[in-house]
Design brief:
The structure is a homodimer of 342-residue chains. The termini of chain A are far apart. Chain A has helices at residues 7-14, 18-26, 33-46, 52-59, 75-90, 104-116, 167-180, 197-212, 229-242, 254-267, 284-288, 298-314; strands spanning 64-69, 94-99, 121-124, 148-151, 161-165, 186-191, 222-225, 248-251, 276-280, 292-295, 324-327, 330-332. Chain A contains 12 helices and 12 strands. Chain A binds a DNA duplex (16 and 16 nucleotides) through residues 6-8, 16-20, 22-23, 25-26, 28-32, 35, 50-51, 53-60.
Amino acid sequence: MKEIKTIKDVAALAGVSVATVGRVIGNYGHVSQKTRNKVIQAVQELNYYPNAIAQGMRNHSTKTIAVIVGSIKNNFFSEIVYAIERVARKQGYNVLICNTHEKEKLEIQHLEMLRSKQIDGIIIASSFARKQDIAVKYRYLYENEIPMVCIDRNIMDLDRDVIESEHFEGAYEATEYLLQLGHEKICVIGMGQPPTSTVRIRISGYEKALEDHQVSFDKNRVLCIDYEETVAQEEISDFFDRNGDMTAILVLNNSLCSGVLKEMVKRGLKCPDNLSLIGWDDEALNQILNITTVEQQISKIGSLAAERLFYLIENRESKGEHMVTTLKTHLLIRSSCKKIDR
Amino acid sequence: MKEIKTIKDVAALAGVSVATVGRVIGNYGHVSQKTRNKVIQAVQELNYYPNAIAQGMRNHSTKTIAVIVGSIKNNFFSEIVYAIERVARKQGYNVLICNTHEKEKLEIQHLEMLRSKQIDGIIIASSFARKQDIAVKYRYLYENEIPMVCIDRNIMDLDRDVIESEHFEGAYEATEYLLQLGHEKICVIGMGQPPTSTVRIRISGYEKALEDHQVSFDKNRVLCIDYEETVAQEEISDFFDRNGDMTAILVLNNSLCSGVLKEMVKRGLKCPDNLSLIGWDDEALNQILNITTVEQQISKIGSLAAERLFYLIENRESKGEHMVTTLKTHLLIRSSCKKIDR
DNA sequence: TTGTAAGCGTTATCAC
DNA sequence: GTGATAACGCTTACAA
């Protein structure tokens, strides 16, 4: 068990001052080749690594960013985090992971902790839909000098950069596809009770498609599910009971697709014979069962968010406009929807 | 955009010294009620939060731990990380996430970075199977004063705590189940080329079960797949070609199950009619398709590892024995395996 | 080219 | 009960 060495130990061993060691380590200023070699020698001998905490203290930078998401267990988020970490590592940054379980209180707690830890930047999928929903005393956590990028969801009226998908268009296209196949009794299922802002926008895309095809909207065809996993299956089951006449389901979150499929198995409903189905996000399950799906560019959300964040970190003073990037979705047509007669 | 306040600002506003503010914040020593109130008032007014970097500098503690895994995209790891983060947050710690892509070089790089960042502890699923495999110059990264817990995999001959599953017994039980159903041409598929230590142990459990039932082991029945996703499906396809006579497959990693199922769909093989199948780890896919599975206590691996790590952090001096915790697996029998005649 | 020393924000010991 | 101050390890302006 070796003691951790400091720049002083290196200086002592090399027979120079700490300033000279600093120059060699930091690669700045002028150092003679001879001295440089002595220092490098000493560094290797002692297995010296600079103390990043002390560096951070001086430089006001921790080379660490944080990602705040609902849950890293959600495939959508774990893929995003993976992409973020990839970009971050190449830039010499580490990534802190924070799960909010979609609880606003926890999100606030995390932000306070991150602020205290002097994190360099934050990528967040917030539980707050609008700035007004954030208690005034906590707004400073969102409106401060720390670079921040919102992913998947916008916080309305908050002037921050956003990377998201075309929620509206994705849902519109999927719904229209079902309408064109002859479906009118179309149900949608999304996450959050109340629904996340993302889900709300997707629902409005669904509504607009119905409207454009002269099919009336029925709010009983919409199910928004709470985040507590235990009750989800029961809610889905009740929903199936209430909508015995539905001919198609559009699932608005990947994590719900398996629940719907379980219910179909339980009821002996075949897809697409008894019920047409469209999923959201492409996963192994959808590929194997040949389920038509709204595809998002998940990795790209992560990598763009990370790149944008590093840009903000390196150009802190630039007071430019906040930027909203919207990524295209794509309806991947497989064989889970069938044509029906009206 | 507010400036970040320091303890000095608080002291100035409250009209006391920084020492007194420190006493109030840190809740130690004696402060009169009157002074205390003035300080608390100032703290709230300025929205002051202690700078954790400066605290870390003083206390030699960062209240941050790191988790090093192959890939957070892997459900097995994302569930573990979720469990770890849950425990950590309650203890006031943050969690850094590091993906190694199962590359030894990257693992070393991460460890160096973490050391530099003065991380308080590390939970790692290492790519190294044995201490001897680690270059001598890097062994100090594994044998130092930083608390460390290995998960899922042990590093042989390294004296560290381990939390893992019963790999051997899990594979033994699954194989025996197949043998009892009359299968003898049983294939296994696992991750890593060469296989991870975890997979190697599972394979030896499989071998032992064959031996105990007087079925000879054939190495052509074993497939170990490289981590590059792009080639995996092809390798599985070739493997199916080479083993046209197999009657059962035991999948040793959750992430491979979907690949096997895709291949079966492609070839029109029904489960269990044409081929019996056992998966590893229970996921939505297995539940929906009714696939018999070796269940691990995934969340528990994470929470136990975190609890053990915090114990080590808080009892740094204790030179106790390293501890190996082995969690039971459970064969969850569904309907993906059928009885056959010998 | 090299060394000295101030300062980053906190904690905690020591005086008063 | 309270305040001054050294220390944590590093960076860098300034002096030599």
